[in-house]
Design a protein that fits this description.
Blueprint (H helix, E strand, L loop, with lengths): L5 H6 L4 H44 L2
Length: 61
């Protein structure tokens, strides 16, 4: 292991706050992108279902 203790791991010779902040921001951005992608997919699927229902309603007459 590179660090001798957990406190050294978190402090990283005084640079830990920057490193862990960067990891946190990156994780937040990635999580936000996943959430946005899932919402857009759900909206697209709902839109496609509405189009199919509309087409089925017009062709059944």
């Amino acid at each position: 292991m590179y660090f001798n203790s957990v406190s050294e791991l978190f402090s990283m010779s005084g640079h830990g706050s920057y490193v862990w902040f960067s990891y946190g921001v990156s994780a937040l951005v990635l999580a936000t992108l996943v959430i946005i992608a899932r919402r857009r997919r759900a909206a697209a699927e709902q839109h496609i279902r509405a189009l199919v229902r509309r087409k089925d309603a017009t062709t059944s007459n």
